[in-house]
Write a structure and sequence with these properties.
Length: about 160
């Protein structure tokens, strides 16, 4: 959760110790759509308009800011951005899926995945696509149906988001 301003500055301080260009963040709890700078970093975020829940953001280093072509705040849990690189275009979708519990109805999960699919279909077919974020999934141990995707060393049982 990045709601307190100090939490954002602490995150930026920690990120300065590693090599990165774009960082995705979930559960920012910020409201509305924002584009702002902290030090030399550009932050693009989207959240619910009326309450401090959910929210996603992308934090861009200077190099990523220069090659940012566009971004699309799809909803309070999905944000996409397109970058032009030396080898072509890269589109990044940062997401935060509802937890598959009684709090998140099947309708809410379907709405999330429908919006994500719609956004992925909107991306030009020649782009490299990166989808990152928190899918609130438990994948468990791999089996024949997930051979080549999951290994046999998972923990726990797969939940409905893990099946998607």
């Amino acid at each position: 959760m990045l709601l307190p301003t100090e939490a954002l500055h602490m995150l930026i301080h920690e990120l300065e110790r590693i090599n990165w260009d774009v960082i995705g963040v979930c559960e920012t709890y910020w409201t509305g759509m924002h584009e702002f700078h902290v030090k030399e970093y550009k932050i693009i975020s989207v959240g619910k308009e009326d309450c401090h829940r959910s929210g996603v953001a992308l934090i861009l280093m200077k190099h990523a800011q220069w090659v940012l072509v566009s971004y699309n705040p799809v909803n309070d849990v999905t944000l996409s951005a397109r970058f032009q690189t030396a080898t072509g275009f890269v589109s990044i979708c940062q997401v935060y899926a509802p937890t598959p519990t009684t709090n998140a109805t099947i309708e809410a999960l379907n709405t999330f995945y429908d919006a994500l699919q719609h956004e992925l279909c909107r991306i030009p077919t020649h782009d490299y696509v990166i989808v990152l974020g928190d899918f609130n999934s438990k994948d468990g141990k791999g089996d024949q149906s997930t051979k080549g995707i999951l290994g046999p060393y998972g923990i726990g049982e797969r939940n409905s988001n893990g099946d998607r």
